[in-house]
Amino acid sequence: MSKENSEQTKEGMEKMEHIVLSYENRVATIELNRPNALNALHEQMLTELLQALKEVEASEADIVIIRGRGKGFSAGGDIKTMLQSTNEHSFIEVMETIKQIAMTLHQLPKLTISYIHGAAAGLGFSLALACDHVIANEQARVAMNFIGIGLVPDGGGHFFLNRKIGDVKSKQIIWEGKIMSAQEAYEVGLVDEIGDEQAIQHKVNEWLAKPIRAMIATKQLYARLSEQQLFNTLQMETAYQAEMRKTKDHEEGIRAFLEKRRPHFSGK
Question: How much is the pTM?
Fold first, then answer.
């Protein structure tokens, strides 16, 4: 990394409270850093994550690792923060940030690895699936569980699920909202590898020993072929999410979550 880029990154890092960005050789590591909230993603954290991705994009790193601090990868969107704001303009701003994160990660001219330990749910799972290679340890649990609060997946969740396993299986997983073990996720094709910290280093070493420029070129080719589809998916997710937020089932899902009980949905 050049001195100029290093200084710019240092300045950016000083402004980030919930994201930790570090570099070692040709590898950048982005850590989600709200461990006391299971790395639930709220507006500030999402903004910082986008900032970190932009900084990495301009860096000389070839590989990016995304992981969480504490007991899990990410519990998803921060529901408590969501409840504090019913402002429609704020909702649109958050969804725009999420859209930019998904597009940036999809098109990033770097090879990306997500490492899931503990929980990766909802938006957190969408983020993990957006990476080129998904590693989960044996204790990991994943879920596309928006259905539990009457919402649809966002963060490109529909796109990234479909890319890995097709629309039929994707619908089943979204509609069921089931919590899957690492082994179950691996068997269905959502996780590429089950392994521990050593598996991350092994994959990094494997990639660094290859002509990585050619690998990145292939990634960018596929990204350009599908970028309009991802963009359209993100636009539709925003529209459907706005619609679902107005339903009685969403209200019931939120109440049930706060009261720690099973929801009673009415289809309205």
Answer: 0.91
